[in-house]
Design brief:
Elements: E1 10-14, H1 18-30, E2 34-38, H2 41-50, E3 55-59, H3 67-76, E4 85-89, H4 94-102, E5 107-110, H5 115-142, E6 146-149, E7 155-158, H6 160-168, H7 173-178, H8 180-188, E8 198-199, E9 207-216, E10 219-226, H9 232-239, H10 244-254, H11 259-266, H12 270-284, H13 289-301
Parallel strand pairs: 1-2, 1-3, 3-4, 4-5
Antiparallel strand pairs: 6-7, 6-10, 8-9, 9-10
Pfam families: GerE, Response_reg
GO biological process, one term: regulation of DNA-templated transcription
Domain HTH luxR-type: 235-300
Length: 302
């Protein structure tokens, strides 16, 4: 499970059983993995905040702070929320399994733990977590006002630019945790027209949230719009020799939409969308959708 550069993966084991800790330490050490140990939830949070592990193996039932509460608190910390948590439990009833997933766990494994099975599951979740983290780093560097939320409206992560825009609008962390979820649930509801934006109430400046896509079983990618700034369509039209309608088509091309999807969004036929796209290609002197999207994204990011 080591990286190509020779850097060892770091796993934090959270368990109050000496026998379990000893067995897991030996298993992971033989696999070339660096092991950190915590005996209960609060200690785990302290360790994770100082030495960020790549994955956490969390016992469900422990004294003081149990694994479910520790996982919930970990996921509330935006610097640590990306760490995959695998629950270890002797409980196999549905209620405990659901409770683990609801707390933010990505998987569970029953005791006694089988070494080969544990390594295989850890490898899969580590790869997924690294892909997700790489995508978020790319979004951060691109300067996008993007964030994601769960179906219940809870904020999962956001780019620094999105956090700054929320702060500029006078929306602090307390408002984000207490008021934002109820508004996001409106946008994420099945009956809501997701091609429309949702105005944020109680902001010091007009902000709008727009739905981008579903990126996981319980994760949705959203965009924050500052309505005091020129719209993306206006920015493209002012920067490029294209009409307003062509700007609308180009914007959705940059969002990865097909001609059929663009036709639905803009209330036109896919054939008409393709006609606009042909004109965009000519005016921008490009040959395909990817090249046109790159030009659009460059101007939008600027």
């Amino acid at each position: 499970m080591n990286t190509s550069r020779g850097k060892k993966d770091v796993v934090l084991i959270v368990d109050d059983s000496p026998d379990t800790l000893s067995m897991l330490n030996d298993t992971l050490d033989q696999a070339g993995i660096t092991v950190l140990v915590a005996l209960e939830g609060a200690q785990a949070l302290t360790i994770a905040a100082n030495i960020t592990p790549d994955v956490i193996l969390m016992d469900a039932l422990m004294p003081n702070m149990d694994g479910f509460e520790a996982c919930r608190r970990l996921k509330e910390n935006r610097d640590l929320a990306h760490i995959p948590v695998i629950f270890m439990t002797g409980l196999s009833d549905t209620e405990s399994i659901v409770k683990g997933f609801a707390a933010g766990g990505v998987d569970y494994i029953t005791k006694p733990v089988k070494g080969d099975e544990l390594i295989a599951r850890m490898r899969a979740h580590l790869n997924n977590a690294r892909l997700t983290l790489s995508a978020r780093v790319a979004l951060d560097s691109a300067g996008q006002f993007l964030f994601s939320a769960a179906a219940d409206g809870s904020l999962l992560w956001a780019t620094p630019q999105a956090y700054h825009l929320l702060e500029d609008a006078g929306l602090d962390s307390a408002w984000l945790s207490e008021n934002l979820p109820a508004q996001l649930r409106q946008l994420l509801a099945p009956h809501f027209n997701k091609e429309k934006g949702l105005l944020i109430k109680a902001a010091d400046k007009p902000l709008e949230i727009r739905y981008i896509s579903q990126t996981g079983n319980d994760e949705y990618l959203l965009q924050l719009i500052d309505l005091e700034r020129p719209s993306d369509v206006d920015r493209l039209r002012s920067a490029l020799p294209i009409t307003e309608r062509e700007s609308e088509v180009l914007l959705w091309i940059a969002h990865g939409k097909t001609n059929r999807e663009i036709g639905t969004i803009l209330t036109m036929s896919p054939r008409t969308a393709n006609k606009h796209l042909e004109q965009i290609f000519k005016k921008l002197n490009v040959e395909n959708r990817t090249a046109a999207a790159v030009i659009a994204l460059k101007h939008l990011q600027n």
